[in-house]
Design a protein that fits this description.
The complex is a heterodimer. Chain A is α/β, with parallel strands linked by helices. Chain A contains eight helices and eight strands. Classes of the chains: A alpha/beta, B alpha+beta. Chain B: GO terms for molecular function: structural constituent of ribosome.
Chain lengths: 258, 179
């Protein structure tokens, strides 16, 4: 069994919160290691309540999930209109004299085999941008829900001693981290060992903090974040909550914007 | 500009010629959108000199630049407007109304129907027992206006709406409560 040599614990004992909350108490979480399969608690840190202890808004979470699924959806369903259906250029019979009803074309919508009037016309894009604050509060609600339901784990870093996939599986099973795990780090180039180990499994996924999104957080049972990822995430969310030029950020999304 | 220079050079060289042979003469090749083809930067001596006037005067530039984050309010003076800062200790009540990031009380006047003069007063950023807050503000408004007040509590979004324009009364009540 691999044992890590470490200085006396706790290694991480305090964390200064940016924009210290006035009346809300910070939430405390353990910081674990990834060096050994057994969990070793390295310290206790504070998490900002405005990021991790917001009242989860299920309607906003739903809006975010719906947006993430729909904004890139293109419907290719297509029906032909009267003028597109083959044939139907000639008047089937003279206007008067036959005793039957009058028609101008055999492909008009009232005929069997004729065109469809208001049917789907491909390609149809379902792109839309959810408002900035809806997306921001979606992240806050989901993070708060994850923490409240004991599905948020903080680790020191994603360095593991071997690239054996079995090590990662044993670690996750030992700690009860749920079937699927999303590992989030600050940098988008992950350590080699965890990249190789998690590559064997579709349910262990790595993600940089800029890719964090509501859908992925809900899809994976457990969210494992590194300390640097937590720092970066809190800094960005708190900046957006306290920025002076919110009008610029929350302006209507323009496709032509650079 | 380059083509003008090229043409003037050609005119000098073929002063007697009646026709300009631009294609066979000087080729000006400066493509500034491509790194490989654009002229490289020279050492600083080739460019206009600059000198620092004063580094103490930079503060006059800095105070004109926009703030990235909302600056805090000054605490050392009285304010001429109705605005009072939030209290430093939380009021001993089962609810809390947080100020906006610009330290304003989150009470707004809405017109929610088109072509209709119906006014709605909305209180946002409520935490805690929203029903107790609604009861407290409703009884206060009924005392002040001597009329029944219609309200609506939205527990998910955590806001309260009153039918009518009671923005100033609600703001005053909240500020006096210390929120």
């Amino acid at each position: 069994m691999l044992t890590a040599t470490r200085p006396p614990l706790p290694i991480i004992s305090s964390r200064k919160l940016a924009f210290p909350p006035k009346f809300k108490i910070p939430r405390q979480v353990w910081v674990s290691n990834m060096d050994t399969v057994e969990e070793e608690k390295l310290g206790l840190i504070d998490l900002h309540p405005e990021v991790f202890a917001e009242r989860p808004r299920l309607d906003i979470i739903h809006e975010n999930v719906r947006w993430q699924q729909l904004y890139r959806h293109v419907s290719y369903a297509h029906t032909k209109m009267s003028y597109e259906v083959r044939g139907g250029g000639r008047k089937p019979r003279p206007q008067k004299g036959s005793g039957r009803s009058r028609h101008g074309s055999i492909r008009s919508p009232i005929w069997v085999g004729g065109g469809v009037v208001h049917g789907p016309r491909s390609p149809k894009s379902y792109f839309y941008m959810l408002g900035f604050n809806a997306r921001l509060n979606g992240l806050r609600s989901t993070l708060s829900a994850k923490l409240a339901q004991d599905d948020l784990q903080i680790v020191e870093s994603l360095d593991i001693p071997t690239d054996d996939p079995k090590y990662l599986e044993a670690l996750v099973e030992e700690r009860g981290w749920g079937p699927s795990v999303l590992f989030v780090d600050d940098h988008d180039i992950m350590p080699l060992n965890i990249t190789a180990a998690s590559d064997a499994y579709g349910h262990y996924n790595l993600m940089p903090v800029y890719g964090l999104n509501v859908f992925s957080m809900l899809k994976h049972t457990t969210l494992v974040m590194t300390l640097s990822a937590v720092e970066r995430l809190e800094e960005r969310i708190l900046f957006h909550l306290n920025r002076n030029d919110a009008a610029e950020a929350t302006a209507k999304y323009k496709l032509s914007s650079v | 500009m380059a083509s003008v220079i090229a043409r003037s050079i050609i005119m000098k060289q073929h002063s007697g010629a009646h026709r300009l042979s631009f294609a066979t003469s000087i080729k000006i090749k400066s493509c500034y959108s491509s790194y490989a083809a654009s002229p490289k930067e020279k050492s600083p001596e080739n460019y206009t000199r600059y000198h620092e006037v004063s580094s103490e005067n930079w503060k006059f530039v800095e105070r004109l630049r926009p703030h990235l984050l909302v600056p805090s309010y000054p605490t050392d003076r009285n304010y001429a407007s109705d605005w009072i800062p939030p209290s430093d200790t939380p009021p001993n009540l089962p609810y809390f109304v947080k100020r906006t990031k610009n330290f304003m009380v989150p009470v707004y006047l809405n017109f929610e129907e088109v072509r209709n003069a119906r006014k709605i007063t909305i209180i946002r950023h409520i935490e805690g027992d929203i029903w107790a807050l609604e009861q407290a503000i409703k009884s206060h408004l009924e005392n002040v206006t001597k009329k029944p007040v219609v309200s609506r509590v939205h527990e998910v979004a955590m806001h309260i709406k009153f039918r009518g324009d009671y923005v100033n009364e609600v703001k005053k009540w909240l500020m006096n409560a210390g929120f």
